[in-house]
Hints:
The complex is a heterodimer.
Chain A: H1 2-38, H2 43-47, H3 61-92, H4 97-111, H5 114-129, H6 134-158, H7 162-169, H8 175-186, H9 188-203, H10 207-212, H11 230-238, H12 243-274
Helix pairs in contact in A: 1-12, 3-6, 3-9, 3-11, 4-6, 5-6, 6-9, 9-12, 11-12
Chain B: E1 4-15, E2 18-29, E3 33-37, H1 44-51, E4 61-69, E5 72-73, H2 80-86, E6 87-90, H3 102-106, H4 108-111, H5 118-131, H6 135-138, H7 151-163, E7 169-173, H8 181-194, E8 199-203, H9 207-213, E9 216-221, E10 224-230, H10 231-236, H11 241-247
Parallel strand pairs in B: 3-8, 3-9, 6-7, 7-8
Antiparallel strand pairs in B: 1-2, 1-4, 4-5, 9-10
Amino acid sequence: MNMxxxxxxxxxxxxxxxxxxxxxxxxxxxxxxxxxxxxxLSLDFIISxxxxxxxxxGGIGNAILGTLIINAMACVIGLPLxxxxxxxxxxxxxxxxxxxxxxxxxxxxxxxxxxxxxLFAFSxxxxxxxHYTALAAAFxxxxxMIPVVSKxxxxxxxxxxxxxxxxxxxxxxxxWVITIKIVLGxxxxxxxxxxxxxFARISGETAPLLFTSLFSYYWPRGLNEPMASLQVLxxxxxxxxxxxxxxxxxxxxxxxxxxxxxxxxxxxxxSTKVG
Amino acid sequence: MSxxxxxxxxxxxxxxxxxxxxxxxxxxxxxxxxAIIGPSGCGKTTFIRCLNRMHExxxxxxxxxxxxxxxxxxxxEMDAMEVRRKIGMVFQKPNPFPNMxxxxxxVAGLKLMGIRDKALLDKVVESKLRExxxxxxxxxxxxxxxxxLSGGQQQRLCIARALATEPEVLLMDEPTSSLDPSxxxxxxxxxxxxxxxxxxxxxxxxxxxAARVSDYTAFLYLGDLIxxxxxxxxxxxxxxxxxxxxxxxxxx
Lengths: 275, 252
């Protein structure tokens, strides 16, 4: 009895201790980024272009806008494809050979290192058009989004019970209406949550961007152009060795971290509200 | 039986090789309540699922025979969705659509078929909810999710949903089996009113319920139709000794 209680206590203490140790790096990173990045933040930092070499001041407005544009384009390509794939796998594949193949393909896709996707977009698009372009970046990032969204859509739709489906069938509704308005409607929270998580995920991807959108010191002029992004800006500036650029890299890191954190908080609130 | 709404001729059904219905023939009179009784596994559910072509959705399902609605064979002369709009169904477990409000649940069959006329939808919602006796309980907030209602209210909501498309026949598969006695009583009295608009075919596990709500009763046993007739006769002077044993509670 006493022995058992001691073991119990020991287990509790060890697991608490390990959890605390695990939390240290996370808090450290967050605090470090906040401390080093906060000093860079100002309105000017967020809305203006980088200053020319040798001049003080300037901001990262083009990189913020660039990340948002590239992410938005990736969503435009990736979300419909991911959702459509999920719908197909859940509702229309009926365990066919194609669906088994598709599922394997998606699992494989989610395991491909993002740098290879960047290389793929580079050889497929950048080499062909002859210059770096944000379109290629969006393409590479959308491939990262597809498996995340399609899996969540498929799983969300599969949880809709036979009872509910039969209720809809008995109303004489066509299959596509039942699929979109009822089954997908019920799975809506999985779709939205996974879309947000996929958005957060691509917001941190840097390797594919180095091959595709690269960087620009100007405001985006078109989608088929090289484009600045927070990720590549952090990479470039942090490695530059210039004191003022390193500070800007920390500021950009803070913004990127806030973006990802706020999406995660949004996802949490959203899924607790619905679930 | 003057006018017959639905005629079943030689209906047999299978799941893969297993036969679950064996050449059932009967005619359902219009605007009456018909109870289907019989012990578990006798084919009651399969039988009514053949009447709105839900049976064919199950893997391995097969049907032979004819089901005729107002002179038209529902298997060869109508398409399945048309059949299901004319022959509505209420299930054992209440199944309101959890992503929809009470309002949208009632008119799901209309709205999702493209009917957008707000005044018409409002009218249908109110009249159907009144019909199932739910209006006074929910009219203060029709935007609430249908899933928040109690089990009995959910089932009445599902009945309202089935009625909204004005079906000519309503199939009910043990609609009270998951409900408490007071909700059951409400649904039973509702069933007696429903026959003013439609032919109601109700499966029940509960022999007393059949006696309370139905005009006609069909007794199924191991896939065979043993006896069909006026409920009074089935209960008071059954022709088949099996029927007598079943309605008096000696087996099943």
